[in-house]
């Protein structure tokens, strides 16, 4: 099932009040919250890990009457991603996105993620060719095409990554395809028209004067593309 999913990255939020920041964007109708886990090794920055995610989960508990509400999308910019699957699942993660570049056995890792009750996703850095995802796609819930070098928020969107998104969308019409880095009003059209349906937006949503309007604007471009191409399901 493909639909527009807007996932604000809390990396651009106020870390002194993460619970309130998550609630703020969910109130503004964010579909997911994107949690950037960085280990200072795979990328040159350190952000958060399982203890912080577990605290955040207490602020926005799962709702047994509404499965999928308050969805935690965990972008794991870590070396040895295998070691964090169980801790992230226990902390309340709903999806685990590992980096292709960080593992020797992506299929085994996908199975481990699924066995821990999470959706499995694979990310590629800007220098990694999209073809590496083809043997994995049938086992993945989502593919993430990075549109910045991972490590920091607030960077410039790399439009030259869009052929990767376009190639994935043509080959896999039903796959969730995420873009991450530099998404906002001036770049959403390029991403949506290439076929991305899951939009990570940190700076543009968290620093917006009106987060709800920003989320709606991002969603409207994705929905238009999906509808025009008969890809929308619901
Ligand atoms: O994975 C990331 C960086 O590695 C972040 O998710 C990304 O940078 C989002 O922030 P922004 O929308 O401000 O670019
Ligand atoms: Fe991210």
UniProtKB/TrEMBL annotation:
Q: Does the keyword Zinc-finger apply?
A: no
EC id: 5.1.3.1
Catalysed reaction, written as an equation: D-ribulose 5-phosphate = D-xylulose 5-phosphate
Biological or metabolic pathway of the protein: Carbohydrate degradation; pentose phosphate pathway; D-xylulose 5-phosphate from D-ribulose 5-phosphate (non-oxidative stage): step 1/1
| Binding residues for substrate | 9, 75, 151-154, 182, 202-203
Recite the UniProt cofactor note for this protein. Binds 1 divalent metal cation per subunit.
Question: What does this protein need as cofactor?
Answer: Fe(2+); a divalent metal cation; Zn(2+); Co(2+)
The entry's keywords? Carbohydrate metabolism, Cobalt, Isomerase, Manganese, Metal-binding, Zinc
| This protein's record includes keyword Transcription regulation | no
* Active site as annotated: 36 (proton acceptor), 180 (proton donor)
Q: Which InterPro entries match?
A: Aldolase_TIM, Ribul_P_3_epim, Ribul_P_3_epim-like, RibuloseP-bd_barrel
Query: Quick one: which residues bind a divalent metal cation?
Result: 34, 36, 75, 180
What Gene3D superfamilies has UniProt attached to this entry?
Aldolase class I
Entry-linked PROSITE patterns: RIBUL_P_3_EPIMER_1, RIBUL_P_3_EPIMER_2
Q: Which GO terms describe its molecular function?
A: D-ribulose-phosphate 3-epimerase activity; metal ion binding
Q: Which Gene Ontology BP terms does the record give?
A: carbohydrate metabolic process; pentose-phosphate shunt
Q: Which family does it belong to?
A: Belongs to the ribulose-phosphate 3-epimerase family.
What is the protein named? Answer: Ribulose-phosphate 3-epimerase
Organism this protein belongs to: Eeniella nana
């Amino acid at each position: 099932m493909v639909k527009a999913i807007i996932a604000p990255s809390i990396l651009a939020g106020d870390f002194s009040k993460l619970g309130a920041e998550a609630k703020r964007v969910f109130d503004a109708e964010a579909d997911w919250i994107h949690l950037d886990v960085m280990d200072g090794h795979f990328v040159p920055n350190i952000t958060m890990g399982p203890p912080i995610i577990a605290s955040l989960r207490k602020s926005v508990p799962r709702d047994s009457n509404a499965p999928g509400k308050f969805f935690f999308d965990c972008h794991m910019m870590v070396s040895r991603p295998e070691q964090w699957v169980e801790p992230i699942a226990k902390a309340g993660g709903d999806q685990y996105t590992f980096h292709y570049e960080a593992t020797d056995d992506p299929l085994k890792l996908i199975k481990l993620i699924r066995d821990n009750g999470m959706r499995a996703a694979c990310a590629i850095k800007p220098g990694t060719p999209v073809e590496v995802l083809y043997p994995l796609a049938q086992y993945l819930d989502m593919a993430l095409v990075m549109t910045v070098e991972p490590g920091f928020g607030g960077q410039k969107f790399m439009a030259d990554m869009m052929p990767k998104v376009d190639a994935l969308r043509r080959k896999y019409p039903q796959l969730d395809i995420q873009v991450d880095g530099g998404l906002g009003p001036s770049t959403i059209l390029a991403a949506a028209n290439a076929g991305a349906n899951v939009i990570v937006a940190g700076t543009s949503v968290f620093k917006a004067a009106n987060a709800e309007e920003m989320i709606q604007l991002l969603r409207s471009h994705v929905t238009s593309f999906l509808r025009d191409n008969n890809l929308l399901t619901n």
